[in-house]
Amino acid sequence: MPIVYLVDSAGVNLPYQGGVFPGQYGASRIFYYNSIMRRYLHVPQLAAVMGPCIAGGAYLPALSDVIVMVKGTSFMGLGGPNLVKGATGQVIDAETLGGAGAHTAVSGVAHYAADHDPAGLARLRDLVAMLPHPQLPHWDAPEPPATDPQTLYDLLPADHRMSYDVHELLRAILDGGRIDEFQSDLAREIVCGDARIEGMPVGVIANQRGLIKGRQGERPRFGGIVYAESADKVAYFIDRCDRQRIPLLFVQDVSGFMVGPDAEHEGIIRAGARFVEAMATA
Length: 282
Fold this sequence. Notes:
CATH class of the largest domain: Alpha Beta
Shape: globular
Number of strands: 14
Radius of gyration: 20 Å
Strand order of the largest sheet: 1-2-4-6
Structural class: alpha/beta
Number of domains: 2
CATH architecture of the largest domain: Alpha-Beta Complex
Largest sheet: 4 strands, parallel
Number of helices: 11
Strand content: 15-25%
Helix content: 25-40%
């Protein structure tokens, strides 16, 4: 049975934290149970951040499989803007520090951003509805793709160095051409998401080709190349699909991992190893 968290917590009252977390029956056992359910029992855990979640209050959603945040009202961070100012002297607003945009497009901590609370709750309902039933096959009635599969021959360029939009390719493969993208604003050189083929749920991992515009102040990325950020994104998505018993569909058109000093300093070796481990153990 899945567990859904609706989280709005400022954390522990700091003067009393020494008596709250330690011990067998302290508050830290919550995180212990979260971890056991996630790692060993494979209990689906989904969280919606409904307000500010600070310090210990941020770990409950962070230990969940999927996190939904609400633009303008959700916040996750080990410290809020006032604590950051007092500790480091930096002045920053809550949305930039740990809002929905920061965590879905920059840090990758959260996975979906909703425009308001009802949309966030609707997203949670959709995610729960996609979970496989423990006893019954969770298949819908099949739908034809949005475009004729024969168009694949026209979409894919004869020269593999040329770019194309993988979303158009997926429209010719997936039921109704639909994919519910996972972390759509993060590492956009790789597309991950939930879809169906012949009614069967699948997790899609596909390379986007072409030049991918970077975030403000960052250089663009080359599609068809795996960066440290995209490797981490895919590894987490594979782990999530594995826990939920969802098969994977790879639409692969990749030249390899990124090389160079920037890639090495970003930890491409460790991220790539995590990617490989996730695939090998799924």
